[in-house]
Each structure stands twice: as C-alpha cells, then as structure tokens.
C-alpha cells in the first residue's frame, strides 16, 4: 500500500522538476540579449512587432546604405525568425551597409544640385555653387578680396563689371611687368641657382596663380548678401535678391554693373509704398536719380495723408521732405484737419523715437495737451514752425476740430486768434474769403486747383444754380 503512493510521489516530483527546468531555460533565453547592427543597441531575443526603433533602423539602413550589401549583420527586424539559446547556428540576414549620418549628410551636400541654393547657405557658398555650375568647375582667373571673403571670378564674366574689369586689367599689367623682371633676373642668376632657386620657385608659383583683386568698401549699406547677389548676376542675369533697395543699388554702383543698377531702379520705381518711400527717396538723393526722387515725392503728395500717416514708417520721413510735400498744391486730402492730424502724428514720433507702434489719436492729443508751455514757443519746437505755417488753418472749420486746436498746447495764442478772426471775417462777409495767393490759400478738399480759370467759375455757378433749383422745387412753401 505504501509502495504506490511513493512511486506516484516520485513521478510527480520528477515531472515538476523537469517543468521547472524547462521554465528556467525559456526564461533565461528570453532574457538573453543580442547585439543588433552597428548601432550598438541591444535587443531581447523575443522582440515583438511593436519594436518601432528596430524598424526605423532597418529603414534607415535601406535608405543610406550601399546596395552591394558586402556585410552581413544580425537583423533587428521584428518579423525575422528568432532562435533559442541552444541553436547551433544563427540565421544571417543580408542588409545594406550602414552609413554614418554625418558622412551621409556630407555626401548628400556634395552631390546635391548646384543650381539650388539653400537659405542656410552663406552668401559666399551661394556664389560658389552658382559660379562653379556655370563654369563647370573651371579654375578661377582672379580672386576678389572684399568684406573679408575671397570670391573666385572668371574672365568670361568680368566684362559685365566696369570696376572689376579695370582692376583685372591693371593687375594683369602689373603681373606682366613682374614676369619680365623675373625673366631678366633669371638670366642673371643662372650661375647662382643654389642661392636664388627657392625664391624664384616661390615667385614663379605666385605669378602663375589667379590674380588677387582687393576692393575696399566704405559704404556701410553694402553687405555680403548684396555683394554675393551682384556677383551672381554676372554668371546668371536672372538671379533675384530678397529685396530691392539701397544695398543692391549701392553694390551695383560700387562694382560698376550698369545693367543691375538700372534694373534695381526700375524695380524700386514699381515698389514704392509706405514702408519703402522714405528709404527710396534717400537713395535717390544719394545717387542723384531725379526720376526716382520725383516718383517718391509724387507718391507722398497722393498718399501722405491716407496711407503713410497710418504707418509707423512715418517717423522716417525727413523734415525737408515733409515740408516740401505740405507746400505742394497737389497734396491730396479730404480736408485740412487730416493734414494737421498727420503732422501731429509725425511730431509725436519724432519726440518718441523708440516707439515701435503707431499710437492712437487720443494718445497723441493727450501727449500735447498735458504740456504747460506752448510747443512752438520752446527751443525744441522753433524748427517746426515752418511745418505748421505750411498748413492752411483757415480750412479747419468744424467746431470739434477748432476746440481740439485750443486744447493741444502746440500753437501760440496769436495763431489761434488769427484763425478765429479769419473765420469771423468770412462769416461777416457772407462767406467770401480774402485770397491773395490762390495756390497757397485754396482750401484742400480731395484735390486742389493750381490756378482759377473762367471754366472753373462757370462750372461752380452752374452747380450752384442747379442746387438752388432743387431746393426751390422741394420746398413746401413754393408758390
């Protein structure tokens, strides 16, 4: 009786020990790690399909690898077959050879299309990429040293720049003279080769390389970006800058590229706006370009009140240009109060140069109203008297606008008294104003006539009669 239970217990014990040993082996095999690829990443032998890192590494190896597949590595692919600890051989999977990311990016940088220029490339790199693509990597004939950069140039494009062509001609002439002197010295020093051989070899190399052209720059508006663009136009005239303006025009004038200079002027003429009119007018005065200067002044006559007065660039408007615009009989405005408002905004921005946004109208009125002394009577405001004298104050007739003139401490009391006296005299005379100079005293209302004429009087009389007839017809007391 006791033998059976003992036999059964021994069988159960042996079965349990075998099962435990099997579990320990499987657990040990699952904990075993293997190296996957050249990334030195360790992976469990029983990887699952959620191993996104392994999939990414395999995909990266296929993208950057070499198709020769000259190496065999242990795959980190989760779909691959895995082996247990006691296997005699491990499956080898052929994958493309991994390439280091830095070497891959360097290879991609060298093999990219040379006509494409990235915004991350420096101005010198953009120029080198374009010049080498156009000349098919030909050796440079000259090296321009300017703004701390060496620009490699070729004779085929130097004719487009008067300055560079002149510098190249002069440098070549000096080199020819040096070559002649070296030939004479070489004949005289044949007997003493040991003493002069090294120096002659250096001079021979120096005189056979590309010419060195050194161009100093004194204009602060010229930078490396503009210089790179100007030199690129010599190789490709279809190149366009990020912005047409003073930097491009100054660089074109420095290098003597007449085609680029005229093209820049043309682009500036078609791109006059609130943000560019002040800088374009300054450039036109700098290079004495009367066409661009007149275009900017004409733009101010049309848009000073309706556009520039609502833009922060109003602070860049020079004093002389503002005065010239206010004195122009072609100044476009809805009424004279809008002109006064634009002048007050300009004056506020001059007194607050660090302000980055345009203030509200109430802010400007409060700023000038809190002053105890009259602004034009102060030393700081003496130079602005001519600005306010250019305004036609007799054209401000609204009661709210006149009250605002009295609230702000800008105009002297004598000026205010003169304005109100003229209004009273006009009302007392039945609306007739004493006009001595029509071009300067005419009220600006959307447009101003240069001089009175008989046709103007006839047109005004006809409209007045038409309005009178309409009022008489609509009147209930008629008849």
UniProtKB/TrEMBL annotation:
<feature type="compositionally biased region" description="Polar residues">
    <location>
        <begin position="10"/>
        <end position="26"/>
    </location>
</feature>
<dbReference type="InterPro" id="IPR042833">
    <property type="entry name" value="BTBD16"/>
</dbReference>
<dbReference type="Pfam" id="PF23998">
    <property type="entry name" value="BTB_BTBDG"/>
</dbReference>
<dbReference type="InterPro" id="IPR056426">
    <property type="entry name" value="BTB_BTBDG"/>
</dbReference>
<dbReference type="InterPro" id="IPR011333">
    <property type="entry name" value="SKP1/BTB/POZ_sf"/>
</dbReference>
<feature type="domain" description="BTBDG BTB/POZ">
    <location>
        <begin position="141"/>
        <end position="268"/>
    </location>
</feature>
<feature type="region of interest" description="Disordered">
    <location>
        <begin position="1"/>
        <end position="26"/>
    </location>
</feature>
<protein>
    <submittedName>
        <fullName>BTB/POZ domain-containing protein 16-like isoform X2</fullName>
    </submittedName>
</protein>
């Amino acid at each position: 009786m006791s033998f059976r239970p003992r036999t059964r217990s021994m069988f159960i014990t042996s079965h349990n020990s075998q099962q435990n040993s099997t579990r320990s082996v499987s657990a040990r095999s699952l904990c075993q790690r293997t190296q996957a690829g050249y990334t030195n990443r360790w992976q469990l032998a029983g990887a699952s399909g959620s191993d996104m890192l392994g999939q990414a590494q395999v995909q990266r190896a296929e993208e950057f690898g070499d198709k020769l597949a000259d190496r065999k590595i242990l795959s980190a692919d989760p779909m691959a077959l895995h082996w247990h600890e006691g296997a005699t051989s491990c499956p080898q999977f052929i994958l493309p050879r991994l390439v280091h990311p830095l070497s891959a990016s360097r290879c991609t940088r060298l093999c990219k299309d040379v006509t494409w220029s990235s915004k991350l490339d420096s101005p010198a790199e953009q120029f080198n990429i374009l010049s080498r693509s156009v000349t098919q990597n030909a050796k440079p004939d000259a090296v321009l040293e300017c703004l701390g950069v060496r620009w490699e140039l070729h004779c085929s494009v130097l004719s487009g720049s008067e300055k560079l062509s002149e510098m190249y001609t002069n440098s070549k002439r000096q080199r020819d003279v040096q070559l002649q002197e070296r030939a004479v010295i070489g004949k005289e020093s044949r007997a003493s080769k040991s003493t002069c051989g090294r120096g002659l070899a250096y001079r021979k190399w120096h005189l056979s390389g590309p010419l060195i052209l050194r161009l100093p720059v004194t204009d602060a508006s010229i930078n490396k970006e503009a210089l790179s663009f100007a030199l690129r136009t010599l190789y490709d005239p279809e190149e366009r800058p990020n912005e047409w303006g003073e930097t491009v025009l100054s660089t074109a004038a420095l290098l003597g590229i007449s085609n680029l200079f005229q093209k820049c002027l043309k682009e500036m003429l078609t791109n006059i706006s609130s943000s560019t009119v002040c800088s374009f007018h300054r450039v036109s005065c700098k290079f004495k370009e009367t066409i661009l200067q007149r275009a900017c002044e004409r733009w101010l006559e049309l848009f000073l009140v309706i556009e520039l007065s609502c833009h922060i660039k109003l602070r860049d408007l020079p004093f002389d240009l503002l005065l010239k615009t206010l004195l122009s009989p072609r100044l476009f405005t809805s009424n004279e109060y809008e002109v006064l408002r634009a002048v007050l905004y300009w004056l506020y921005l001059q007194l607050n140069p660090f302000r980055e946004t345009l203030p509200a109208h109430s802010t400007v009125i409060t700023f000038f109203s809190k002053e105890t002394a009259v602004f034009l009577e102060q030393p700081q405001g003496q130079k602005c008297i001519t600005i306010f004298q250019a305004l036609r104050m007799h054209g401000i007739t609204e009661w709210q606008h006149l009250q605002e003139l009295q609230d702000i401490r800008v105009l002297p009391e004598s000026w205010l008294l003169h304005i109100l006296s003229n209004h009273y005299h006009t009302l007392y005379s039945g609306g007739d104003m004493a006009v001595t100079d029509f071009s300067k005293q005419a009220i600006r209302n959307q447009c101003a006539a240069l001089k009175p004429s008989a046709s103007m009087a006839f047109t005004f009389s006809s409209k007045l009669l038409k309005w009178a007839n309409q009022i008489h017809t609509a009147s209930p007391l008629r008849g």
